[in-house]
Amino acid sequence: MEEGVKVVGFWPSPYSQKVIWALKQKGVAYDYIEEDLSNKSQLLMKSNPVYKKIPVLLHGGKPIAESSVILEYIEETWPQNPLLPKEAYERASARFWIQFGAEKGPTFGSLFTSTAGEEQDKAAKDALEVLKILEEQGLGNNKFFGGDSINLVDLALGWLAHWFQCIEELVEIKLIEPTTLPRLHAWVENFNQVPVIHENLPDKKRLLAHMKSIREMSISAK
Amino acid sequence: MAEENRVTLHGFWASPYSKRVELALKLKGIPYEYVEEDLRNKSQLLLKYNPVHKKVPVLVHNGKPIAESLVVLEYIDETWKNAPKLLPEDPHTRSQVRFWASFLQQQLFESVLKVLKTEGETQEKALKQVSEKLNLLEEGLKSFYSDGNPCIDIEHVGLHDLVLVSFFGGYKVYEELLGIKLLDPEKTPLIYSRLTALADLPLVKETLPPPEKVVALLR
């Protein structure tokens, strides 16, 4: 029985978006609640008292927070169109890359808030190193991190296919290029063409404006 | 040891990440070979098995390496299905176990490390954070165990229990050595009772490193 599924999210957040992608990929119907992060709702505070953050998934009234935890829950609850391999070792490998992506968030955060000069050069170098590892050891010669089709790893790293381009534009440094990271560059194109992804991306212009203002706020707060 | 089930663990005696994997293997009665790594002089095998992070623990099962302790624990649970089950069957309860394991690791442990490594005002601020996070954990565990707090025995240890005891099993010694109270049984009775019950299990006692040695290393 399909009990009510609700997603409490925020339109520019990639964490929010991965939950939507997973639900759509599995054909699970849900109600979306847009959260105003400057004025958090009672629902959010009650559903995620520990972090008070989005996304939160509610299933039959029971809340789950933390996007990586939510994705595993979705996979286990709705097994159709599987997003994790069946075999234990391959699952461990997928989880390894999901964790790697999560751990390296601050590296890209540093790039995002950096200003021209030594600080930015180092941030770009560090980010490139991470991207190289993803390309060479994560992706390898596969079309997607999930092989022939997308899986949770692709969803977890999906922000690199849309949000990262905004970062590149704002710091005026292009890292994912066909000459430097050919396979990752191809992955970006392929990922964006997957119908569920293509139809569920925040508007680029609107996102860029939003990220620009966040960046400016972070820089002036330094 | 049968060829079909060769298990090797590359670890470090003082690493809580390493110890939690050892605990899981011992609790489930999985025979394994242990390789103590000198972290200042890492073995060729470790670098080969974990080229991305070059860290312990790494579990090698029939020649295939798995890194990242929480990933390893889930792998162990999926491959050896005997008790204790580190994760329950029900997806919602599983999500809660994963949530708290992540909280213990990313939030609570980070704050405790700050306390251990700082002094004066910075340390006071860090202590306040630890206290706040312990309160959040206590509230969380209360609802997690709202159907009753199951007794701790070697057949009933969860993933979050392993994270809790591997990080904080030696907390009393930290308190003595630093002259700071970290855990108050009156403020956080559930955390206190679970942690002490876990730390008292003979298998846990014999596996965890002497806390004084760990503190000496941290300094």
Low-confidence stretches of chain A: none
Enumerate how many helices of chain B there are, as a single number.
Answer: 10
The poorly predicted ranges of chain B are none
What value does the average pLDDT of chain A take?
96
What overall geometry of chain B do the principal axes of the alpha carbons give? globular
Percent helix of chain B, as a range, is 55-70%
User: What is the overall number of helices of chain A?
Assistant: 11
Order of helices and strands of chain B: EHEHEEHHHHHHHH
Order of strands across the main sheet of chain A: 2-1-3-4
**Spatial gap, N to C terminus of chain B:** 40 Å
Major sheet of chain A, described briefly? 4 strands, mixed
Radius of gyration of chain A: 18 Å
Explain this structure to me?
The complex is a heterodimer of chains A (222) and B (219). Chain A is 56% helix and 8% strand. Chain A contains 11 helices and 4 strands. Chain A has helices at 14-25, 42-47, 67-77, 88-103, 105-112, 118-139, 152-157, 163-171, 182-193, 195-198, 204-221; strands at 5-9, 31-34, 56-59, 62-65. In chain A, helix 1 links the parallel strand 1 (5-9) and strand 2 (31-34). In chain A, helix 5 runs antiparallel to helix 6. The relative contact order of chain B is 0.13. The mean pLDDT of chain B is 93. Chains A and B meet through strand 4, helix 3 and helix 4 of A and strand 4, helix 3, helix 4 and helix 5 of B.
List the helices and strands and how they pair.
The complex is a heterodimer of chains A (222) and B (219).
Chain A: E1 5-9, H1 14-25, E2 31-34, H2 42-47, E3 56-59, E4 62-65, H3 67-77, H4 88-103, H5 105-112, H6 118-139, H7 152-157, H8 163-171, H9 182-193, H10 195-198, H11 204-221
Helix pairs in contact in A: 1-3, 5-6, 8-11
Chain B: E1 7-11, H1 16-27, E2 33-36, H2 44-49, E3 58-61, E4 64-67, H3 69-79, H4 91-117, H5 120-144, H6 159-168, H7 171-178, H8 189-200, H9 202-207, H10 211-218
Parallel strand pairs in B: 1-2
Antiparallel strand pairs in B: 1-3, 3-4
